[in-house]
Specification:
About 30% of the residues lie in helices and about 30% in strands. The protein contains six helices and seven strands.
Length: about 190
């Protein structure tokens, strides 16, 4: 499969909307909006990558450099202390068209995101894998690439889904009762 990876062109409104539709369709209607993608695409510390197969959008991935680790504290309350002197990248979101999941597209996007974060000087990358009960989630992608699982947190998305309601395609409840696992990828020195 010849996948082409390109940065999101924010001036291409059709591609921007197609990316958002795929993200919301695969991860939860109402979870993402244009501001989310525009903020990431316009930041020097972030990147939005689009995967194409024969000029058709088949996947989207977002990554960024982070300074605030509060989001990750449910997994490790000492994470800020443990990673104190590290430049940290985060895989913010990843989705693949439903008809093409399980074919290596997610790995291709993730590897490119990791390369971008490495080129920006990151020491490690964090990723949260959604335990949705759906057949294709990022845990397999993370493990195949070499991420190490840190900890699972039950009902990880519950509070966020109360504050920012979305329709979870996994548990199909509101608020979302899905769990998540934190993964870490350290660059070899």
């Amino acid at each position: 499969m010849n996948i082409e990876i390109k940065e999101l062109d924010i001036n291409n409104l059709e591609l921007l909307n197609e990316s958002l539709n795929m993200m919301n369709r695969t991860q939860g209607e109402g979870l993402f909006n244009q501001d989310y993608l525009l903020k990431k695409a316009n930041s020097i510390d972030a990147i939005v990558l689009c995967a194409f197969l024969q000029n058709k959008l088949v996947g989207v991935g977002c990554a960024e450099i982070i300074n605030n680790l509060d989001y990750y504290k449910p997994f490790d309350r000492n994470i800020a202390k443990r990673l104190k002197d590290k430049k940290i990248g985060s895989l913010c979101s990843l989705c693949v068209n439903e008809d093409l999941q399980g074919k290596g597209i997610g790995q291709t996007i993730t590897k490119k995101c990791i390369d971008c974060l490495k080129n920006k000087g990151c020491d490690l990358v964090l990723g949260v894998s959604w335990i949705s009960g759906l057949s294709h989630t990022s845990n397999r992608v993370f493990e195949k690439i070499g991420f190490k699982p840190i900890k699972e947190v039950k009902e990880f998305y519950k509070n966020d889904s109360i504050e920012h309601p979305f329709n979870c395609p996994g548990c199909k409840t509101q608020p979302c009762t899905c769990s998540a696992t934190l993964y870490e990828y350290h660059f070899k020195e």
